[in-house]
Amino acid sequence: MFHKIRIKNIKKETPEAVSIEFDIPENLKDEFSFKPGQFLTIKAKIQDKDVKRSYSLCSSPSSGKHKVVVKQITNGIFSSFANQELKITDTLEVNKPAGSFYIETDAKNCKNYTLIAAGSGITPIMSILKTILKEEPNSKVNLFYGNKTPNLTIFKEELEVIKGANKNRFNLNFIFSRSKGESNFHSGRLEGRKLKKLFKKLAPIQDTNDVFICGPEELSYSVKELLTKKMKFNPT
User: Fold this and answer.
1) 164-178, pLDDT tens digit by residue?
2) Under DSSP, is residue 120 helix (H, G, I), strand (E, B) or coil?
3) Per-residue CA distances from 104 to 9, 66, 83, 129, 210 (Å)
4) 20 to 30 A from 78, CA-CA: which of 10, 110, 116, 184?
5) Is 94 helix (H, G, I), strand (E, B) or coil?
């Protein structure tokens, strides 16, 4: 069931992406509770057409916020509308959170997580990352996040702040395909040899409990193939 929800805040995250925070009414708070990694389905009438899209929540459940990011897509009807026309106090029709890609945390856990994201795939990963660091004080997280350039990296500054606050528990790696990174590993596309090095040296698979991936289908497939068929990885 869709509800008309007011936009509380809009922020330009990069030149081609905006974050949208919704003002969920008190009487809908329970219905809109969510697990880190889930998404919202949004509906709007644009150019006399009913347009419906789903976007992952990038906020953590404990924050009390419901925030998504919409990245501009060439000729994208909703993404163009969101990036160019939407404003605070506008309303959109929003369905309750859904999706099977999420994490269940436990304060007793002492795990090593490896998170892999590319582009706007950071949105559910961001929610998962924040939740692990807050709710599992004995767990550690490796994040490998691929983008074209630093200025197109969604949440770059926020991730650096999180890193500064969790130096011993959070290992942050930015990888840029069209810009020089801090090393050869951090420069170029996140694929092939780079993925093998990732799981052999930077985040050894034998020391890893869980892996979460969100990005282009090609990346997700490559990681799954590498882990399950060549490295025989079984999540614990």
Assistant:
1) 999 999 999 999 999
2) helix
3) 28, 18, 32, 12, 12
4) 116
5) strand
